[in-house]
Specification:
single chain, 191 residues, alpha+beta, Alpha-D-Glucose-1,6-Bisphosphate, Chain A, domain 4, eight-stranded antiparallel beta sheet, 3 helices, 28% helix, globular, disordered N terminus
């Protein structure tokens, strides 16, 4: 009975116009020499285990953000950890770039996802991404941290202010997609 009620509530939340509450409360971009540190705070109105499962699914990661053209596991162990590949393509003002990354994936379900770039197989010199998930009253808070040193030229005109503004818009769309996917997954699991 409880599972049925949860499934009905999740379905109602998906169908109700304007009911989604995915929000991006902060995006910060800092440049330190050649390194960029990007930190964002998101709130998703979906259960943390479902949000975690969507973010840890590199075979379907491009469902979360349209900048991902391809993503998949290269190697995967019984815990879901391993080696992952992503190819991203996006344009910022006049500057378009495709970035390929191979990263190690470490999971601490349902609280933490960490990837570390394998530089010799990537278009970045170094990088680490952390997703830290915590419960809130209505769903999940996500802190996303990315520390990256690109292995390509970044136009000096594009400063942290422009990158921040651009990332905020993309993060809002990704947060909405993530919330929708997580609510659908939670409803399917409950049904």
């Amino acid at each position: 009975m409880k599972r049925c009620l949860i499934a009905l509530l999740a379905a109602a939340a998906l169908l109700a116009p304007g009911s989604r509450s995915a929000t991006v409360s902060d995006v910060a971009v800092e440049k330190d020499g050649a390194r960029y540190l990007i930190v964002s705070q998101l709130t998703i109105d979906a259960p943390r285990p479902a949000v975690f499962d969507i973010l840890a699914d590199y075979d379907g990661f491009e469902r979360v953000s349209s900048i991902f053209e391809e993503s998949h596991f290269i190697q995967r162990d019984e815990n879901g950890e391993g080696l992952v590949y992503t190819r991203m393509r996006d344009c910022l003002l006049f500057f378009c770039k495709t970035i390929e990354r191979v990263e190690t994936l470490e999971l601490d379900p349902p609280s933490r996802i960490v990837t570390v770039v394998v530089p010799e197989q990537s278009d970045v010199r170094s990088g680490e991404t952390r997703w830290i998930l915590t419960d809130n009253d209505s769903g999940t808070d996500i802190r996303h941290e990315m520390d990256m040193e690109p292995d390509f030229w970044v136009p000096p005109v594009i400063g942290p202010f422009i990158i921040k503004r651009y990332l905020r818009k993309g993060s809002e769309r990704a947060a909405e997609r993530l919330e929708k996917l997580a609510l659908e997954a939670a409803a399917a699991d409950a049904g």
